[in-house]
Amino acid sequence: MSRPVSRVLTLLELLQAGGVRTVAELAGRLGVGERTVRRYVDHLVDLDVPVESVRGRYGGYRLAPGHRMPPLMLSDDEALAVLLGLVAGRRTGITAAAGTAGETAAAKVRRVLPERLRQRLDAVLGSLTFTTAPAESAAPEAAVLLPIADAVRHHRPVSVRYTGGSGRGGERTLYPYGLVAHGGRWYVTGWDLSVAADRTFRLDRIAGARVLPGTFEPPPGPDPAERVLTALATAPHRYGVTVRVRGTAGEVRALLPGSVAVVAAEAGGDDAPPPAGLGAGPWCRVEIRAERLDWLPGLLASMGRPFVVERPDELRALVADLADRLLDAVRPSPPSDGRPSDGRPSG
User: Fold this and answer.
1) 8 A C-beta contact, residue 192 and residue 202
2) Termini Cα distance of the chain
């Protein structure tokens, strides 16, 4: 397929996604100039594809409302990618919230495939097994995800009906910065006007979303993924843990899950005094919030770096217990026949 034809088909796919696409947006997605985009649109019109031009500040191009495109022809690789994507999405729980939509979509794809290709894909899906259990479904409804995504894309406020973990619900107005998928869940992070602060919300707890008039300018700073991970790591829990770890913040951050730990360089950087009895820096401070402490000694030991537990005292006891058990595991076994451990006769 020649490059211009491929780009015209890509343009058609972008328009099929719905909504108005600006010329600048289309040019950026296609990697061409704006005059070329207009020429590609003319090609689609010549093929009787009803592309409409929308004027105004948010103008651009869109497909005529209600127009239905013929089925797309998929190559072997494309069909396999679609079906495996649907299977993986259901398995991780990230696309299962819309009832049987994933299953019906897979059935429709299979129905339009040639018999030869359908049998080969069925062989793949029928022989595929997973090493992990299916995740609990926590994906959002399309009626929630789509308007929020539109608000993120066009920097518009959105009104949501949200129910928190405590069961309390209400209307919130949000300036959404971005959508983040993490650990089988979807999150939206942004500025919550009701509390005048950055907040992170789970999309599966949103019952409805409505885009509002107006626009906003996203602030500089961390990207949405970093904002969500920080929110998860600093959420209220039973224990507040503080540990000093030898290494730069970047080195230590790479060893710990971002949704669990907040890592910061020590005040003073490389010149900060090291903990008593340990080598010189750099050292950094790790803050962790957790409901249980029993998993933390193993995590800290797995870093392979010197560390000092500052709080809580219960964690110090658990780390000491782990150290004792590790020492017991490497001590020589006592002789069972009266012979010394080196194998020489006693005497």
Assistant:
1) no
2) 88
Nearest to 202 by CA among 236, 221, 179, 218: 179
Both tokens of residue 123?
A: 């062989």
Q: Element (H or E) spanning 2, and its range?
A: none
pLDDT tens for the chain, 347 residues: list them.
445 777 887 888 788 777 888 888 899 888 899 899 999 999 888 878 888 888 877 678 988 876 665 555 677 788 888 888 888 777 776 765 455 667 777 777 777 777 888 888 888 888 888 777 776 666 778 888 889 999 999 999 999 999 887 777 789 999 999 999 887 788 999 999 988 988 999 888 998 899 999 999 988 888 898 888 888 887 878 888 999 999 999 999 999 988 888 899 886 555 555 565 566 678 999 999 888 899 999 999 999 999 999 999 999 999 999 999 999 888 887 766 655 555 555 54
Q: Which helix (H) or strand (E) holds 143?
A: helix 142-154
Judge contact between 312 and 241, C-beta under 8 A.
yes
- By residue count, the chain amounts to 347
Buried b (16+ CB within 10 A) or exposed e, 113-142: beeeebeebeeeeeeeeeeeeebebbbbbe
Q: For residues 140 and 151, what is the distance between their CA atoms, to the nearest angstrom?
A: 16
DSSP state string for 184-241: TEEEEEEEETTTTEEEEEEGGGEEEEEE-SS---PPSSS-HHHHHHHHHHTS--SEEE
DSSP structure string for 283-337: EEEEEEEES-STTHHHHHHHT-S-EEEEE-HHHHHHHHHHHHHHHHHHSPPPPSS
